[in-house]
Amino acid sequence: MSIAAVVAYTIALALIPQFAGNYETRIAISVAMFSALALSWNFIGGFTGYPSFSTAAFFGLGCYIGALSQRAGLPAEAAWMIATVGVAAFAAALGAIILRLKGHYFAIGSIAIVEVTRLIISSWGSVTGGGDGLNVPLMTGTPDVVAARILYIMLAVMGGAFVATVIVDRSRLGFGLRCIHQNEDAADMVGVDTTRFKIAAFVLSALFCGLVGAVYASWVGYIDPTDSFSILLTVKVPVMALLGGAGTLAGPIVGAGVFVLLEEFFWANFLQWNRAILGIIIVFLIFFLPGGLLKIRYKNLLKKLSANRSADRSNTVSEGEAKG
Amino acid sequence: MTAILELKNVSKNFGGVSAVSNVSFGLKQGEIVGLIGPNGAGKTTLVNLVTGVHSLSDGQVIFKGEDVGSQKPFQAARRGLARTFQIVQPFPEMTVLENVSAGAVFGGAAGGIAAGQEAAQAELDFVGLGHVANEPASSLSLPNRKRLELAKSLAMKPSVLLLDEVNAGLNASEIDDALKLIEQISGRGVTILIIEHLMKVVLSVSERLLVLHHGELIADGTPKQVVEDQRVIEAYLGAKFAERYKVAG
Ligand SMILES: Nc1ncnc2c1ncn2[C@@H]1O[C@H](COP(=O)(O)OP(=O)(O)O)[C@@H](O)[C@H]1O
Ligand SMILES: [Mg+2]
User: Fold this and answer.
1) pTM for the structure as a whole
2) Which of A71, A171, A306, B76 has its CB surrounded by the most CB atoms within 10 Å?
3) For B138, which residue in chain A has the nearest alpha carbon?
4) Where in chain B is the domain with CATH 3.40.50.300?
C-alpha cells in the first residue's frame, strides 16, 4: 500500500514543472532531495537503531568529490557516480571503526565526523579552494529546463533509495538489522554477523547522500565548506525521518515532505522564526510522537483526547509505558 | 569416541579476578551433562568462553576437531554451537515466530526468510509455543520466555546446546516440563550441557556431572560418583544432602 502511495507521490512531484512555476519546482527539488537523505538515514538510524549524525559528512563529501571531478573535465553524470562510490568507500572504511561505539557515544562520534571532514576540506585549500569554496561548471539550458532536469534526477535518487529500502526491508539484511536494533547481543548469538551488517547499513546510509550532494553541487554551481558540511543539515535529516516514522518504509518521505513544507511556510511568514521550527519539532517529537506520524494510531488518539477532557491523565501514562 | 566439544586448560581472568581457572573436560556426541556449582562459580563465564562472548585468558576450546578459541559469537552459532542466556534475551518488539526465525535464518540452514519461518513454526510447536507464534515476545510469561530461548537456539540446528539456567525461576511442575523437553532434544542427537546452580534439578537427567567451584572443576563423573565425592560434599553439597541422596538412591 505504501509502495503505491510513494509511486503516486513521485509522479505528482514530477508533474510540478508542467503546472507550476520555478518557485514550486525549487520546493519540489528540496522535497525530493531531503526525502532521499532521510531514506538514507533510515538504514542506519531507523532499521539498525544507531543514531547517526553523519549525513552532512556524506553529503558534503559528495558535493566536493562531484565538483572536483567535474572541474577535472568529467561529464556531470560520471562525476555523480564517482561521488557515490567514493562516499560509499569512505563510509565502509569509517564504519569499521565508528560502529564499535554504541548509543550516545556513537551519536557524538558520528557528529565529530562532520566536523573533521569539514576541517580537512577547508584546510586543504590547494585542492578544494578552502574557505573560498569552488565553482562548479553550470548545467546548460534555461533555468526552467535545468530546474526540471534536477528535479527528475533528485526524484530518481529518491526512488532508488526507496527501492533499496523496500528490498532491504524484505531481505535477510533488513531482518538482521532489526534484530541488531532490538538486541545486539542476542543478534550476535543467533548468528548475525553484526559488524558486517552494521557496516552495510552505514554504507547504504551514505551512498545516496553522496549522490545527492554531487547533484546538488551541479545544481547550485557553487559550494563551500560551511554550506556543504552544515550541522543544521545533519540534525534536520534524522528529525525528518523520526517525524514520519523511523524504520518504516515511507516514513522518511512523509517526514521530509511535511518538514520542508512547514519550513517553507515559516520562512515565508515569520522569517526570524525559521530556525525555531526545528526546535519545536524536536521537542514535539520527543514528547508526543515517539513513533512518528505513520505510527500514530489515529483512532486511539481521538479516543484519548475525548477521555482526557473528562477524566484524569492516567490513560496517557499507560500509553507511554507501552511504548517504552 | 572423541569428544565433540573439548576444553583444555581453559582460564579467564577479569582484571585480577580469576573467574575460571584451568578447566578441562570433553562432551561426547549425544551426551547430556550437568554443570553445577553455586552462584559465582564461573558457570556463565564458561559458557561465554565457549561461545566467543569472552576471549580466553588461557587454554583451548576444540569443537569438532577445530580450535575455535578465537571465534566470535555469531561464528559459534553458525558452527552449531548454540546457547541460551541465563537472563533471557528476546527481540522484544518482534513476534515469537520472528524471534525464532532469526535463529533459523542466521544460525541455521534456512535459505530465506520464508524457509526460516517454516522451520521456526516447527520448533515453536515442539516447545509448546505454537499457539502464541504471532504474539509479541515481550508479552510472554517467564516460563514461556525460557521456552522461546530454547526454540530460538533449536532453530539454529545446533549439534551442541549449552543451556544456562533454563530452569531458574520456574516452579516444580514447570521444571518437570522443561526437563522432559530437554530429554526430547537430547533424543534428536543434540549434545547438551545443562547448567544449574541446584544439583537436584539436573540429577535426574544428567548422565554425567561436572562441578565447578570458585572457577575450578572439582569433580567430573557419574551423578553417584559426584555426590559421594568428598571435595564436592565439603565445598558445595554439605553433608546433609549426601546423606539424603544415599538414602533415596
Ligand atoms: N564481564 C565480567 N567482568 C568482570 N567480572 C565478571 C564478569 N562476568 C563474570 N564475572 C565474575 O566472574 C565470576 C563468575 O561469574 P559467573 O560466571 O556469572 O558465575 P555463575 O554463572 O556460576 O553464577 C563472578 O565472580 C563474577 O563477578
Ligand atoms: Mg550464571
Assistant:
1) 0.88
2) B76
3) A322
4) 1-77+159-227
